Amino acid sequence: ETGVTQTPRHLVMGMTNKKSLKCEQHLGHNAMYWYKQSAKKPLELMFVYNFKEQTENNSVPSRFSPECPNSSHLFLHLHTLQPEDSALYLCASSPRAGGRREQYFGPGTRLTVT
Amino acid sequence: AQKITQTQPGMFVQEKEAVTLDCTYDTSDPSYGLFWYKQPSSGEMIFLIYQGSYDQQNATEGRYSLNFQKARKSANLVISASQLGDSAMYFCAMSESNTGNQFYFGTGTSLTVIP
């Protein structure tokens, strides 16, 4: 298994749909992150979980709902999204949050909201 | 204000030559970390190199080195002996001790290696 996996790789959904993105890390890390990557914009950190506890929520709209059942799995539940939410969603993990914490990223989910 | 600034949207380099990708940062925190990542067209972000604010020497990892100039708040990435596989987007990033678990990325530089 590669370090960080994400499913699905591609997702097209309507504005009234509910879907979930899944991330799994096989690195034994304790911190996990969700990022949004839109064209021409810096990567935006959305959520941080450290030892399953959410430590950061960067003013993300409530239509994005994260879930971290254990240190290896992270979900992003999506509902009533807007077209401007179309982006690449990247999951990452690091040994812990805080301090030197190079992050290891998954391949991303390319989300299109129609 | 932007925490990380990358002023070169696109760069070209001849194969086997060296190239420098610029990064400046903004922080008042004395303790911070600087990172460079590579993102090929496949989308996955790959960690390349790290520099801590208290590190006395510039970081090096194989063909990658970080030219850390603390007073200028710059952390340029130098890639030596460029290879075709180096063609990708490159992102500079920073973490600070005083902002919890925040992580800031720049807008990236697209590097194209010419055969």
Describe the structure.
The complex is a heterodimer of chains A (114) and B (115). The mean pLDDT of chain A is 91. Chain A contains no helices and eleven strands. The radius of gyration of chain A is 13 Å and the shape is globular. Chain A is an all-beta fold and 114 residues long. Chain A starts with a strand and ends with a strand. Chain A has strands at residues 4-7, 10-13, 18-25, 31-37, 44-50, 53-57, 64-70, 73-79, 87-94, 104-105, 109-113. Chain B is mostly beta strands. Helix content of chain B is 0%, strand content 51%. In chain B, strand 8 (64-69) and strand 9 (74-79) form a beta hairpin. Chain B contains no helices and twelve strands. The mean pLDDT of chain B is 93.
Estimated structural class of chain B: mainly beta
Low-confidence stretches of chain B: none
Count of helical stretches of chain B: 0
Q: Report the β-strand fraction of chain B as a percent range.
A: over 45%
CA-atom Rg of chain B in angstroms? 14 Å
The chain pair with the largest interface is: A-B, 28 and 26 residues
Task: Report the biggest beta sheet of chain B as strand number plus sense, adding barrel if it closes.
Answer: 6 strands, mixed
Main β sheet profile of chain A? 7 strands, mixed
Tell the overall outline of chain B: globular
Low-confidence stretches of chain A: none
Structural class of chain A: mainly beta
Task: Tell me, rounded to a whole number, the average pLDDT of chain B.
Answer: 93
First-residue to last-residue Cα separation of chain A: 33 Å
Range of helix content of chain A:
under 10%
Oligomer description: heterodimer
Radius of gyration of chain A: 13 Å
State the order of secondary-structure elements of chain A, H for helix, E for strand. Answer: EEEEEEEEEEE
Helix content, binned percent of chain B:
under 10%
Q: How much β-strand is present in the residues of chain A? A: over 45%
